[in-house]
Amino acid sequence: MRPGAIFVALRFVIHMRAFYTDHFVLPLPPGHRFPMRKYSDLRARVLADVPGLSMQEAPRADDDALLLAHTFEYVEAVSAGRLDPARQREIGFPWSPEMVERSRRSAGATMAACDAALADGIAVNLAGGTHHAYADKGGGFCVFNDAAIAARWVQRQSGRTPADFPVAIVDLDVHQGNGTASILRDDATVFTLSLHGEKNYPFRKEASDLDIGLHDGCGDQDYLQALTGALDILAGRFKPRMIIYLAGADPHEGDRLGRLKLTLQGLARRDQEVFDFAYQRRIPVAVTMAGGYGNNIDDTVAVHAQTIALAARHAQRWAARDEGAGASTSLPLSA
């Protein structure tokens, strides 16, 4: 057991599905600031610490899925390596076949998590949250917008019209989901909520259905108060049948790009508030990891692992509502 472990009691172990892409590694130049290693570290961490996870390789999103949120010209240019050099620089990764494959798999993982959540109440993508990708361009380490793709895909999979299967995207990455807001601006069947650093990237923000900008240095109390208010507004304006939750680690006080001051405990309360909101309304949740750029990569992994452990507890609670209580166990959330 690691020092400082926080324990989450589980009533019985079920197999929450978690979709991974970490074995699709981008060939990045030395010194590149994207923390690619965090994904493999995260999978190893939760396999060791979170009982009952069902780890599954992420499926590959095909062109039909990508075209739910992106233009044909953009999908073709990315896939063939024909993006304008300036557009490629906006993404922040050099082009490679591995970049294309990993980006398709990351979108596929969120689609699969939505599908699994419909059956199980919750599922997680151990990557995803690529919310800076627009319909016709990428940006900020985001190639394809997995949340926008998955929202429209799950609507079609539901067997209902989009109006009869509304989806909420709750984006708690520290950076505004500008690409998501742009893609879904005129889509009344998907509600976009973004709680982010007001002065942080992107410096030109798009209009989400609900944007809450936070001041630099915002800590636990102010953040959680803003989140409660945002979820109250969401509940009053929209009745989602599915939530896609971007659980960014970058509001953490140790994040080098975040500019906020949330503690690990504050981020646990953040995640729990989202899960409670969904549980009380019986709304399935697909969770993605989104951003995290800690000065110490272990801090970022700890935040993401905590989110997954809390999601596992939520899965127990969801199942218990239908199946009754079982044996008790304990789950360590390492600080």
UniProtKB/TrEMBL annotation:
<dbReference type="GO" id="GO:0016787">
    <property type="term" value="F:hydrolase activity"/>
</dbReference>
<dbReference type="InterPro" id="IPR044150">
    <property type="entry name" value="HDAC_classIV"/>
</dbReference>
<protein>
    <submittedName>
        <fullName>Histone deacetylase</fullName>
    </submittedName>
</protein>
<dbReference type="InterPro" id="IPR000286">
    <property type="entry name" value="HDACs"/>
</dbReference>
<keyword id="KW-0378">Hydrolase</keyword>
<dbReference type="InterPro" id="IPR023801">
    <property type="entry name" value="His_deacetylse_dom"/>
</dbReference>
<dbReference type="InterPro" id="IPR037138">
    <property type="entry name" value="His_deacetylse_dom_sf"/>
</dbReference>
<dbReference type="InterPro" id="IPR023696">
    <property type="entry name" value="Ureohydrolase_dom_sf"/>
</dbReference>
<dbReference type="GO" id="GO:0004407">
    <property type="term" value="F:histone deacetylase activity"/>
</dbReference>
<dbReference type="Pfam" id="PF00850">
    <property type="entry name" value="Hist_deacetyl"/>
</dbReference>
<feature type="domain" description="Histone deacetylase">
    <location>
        <begin position="53"/>
        <end position="297"/>
    </location>
</feature>
<dbReference type="GO" id="GO:0040029">
    <property type="term" value="P:epigenetic regulation of gene expression"/>
</dbReference>
<comment type="similarity">
    <text>Belongs to the histone deacetylase family.</text>
</comment>
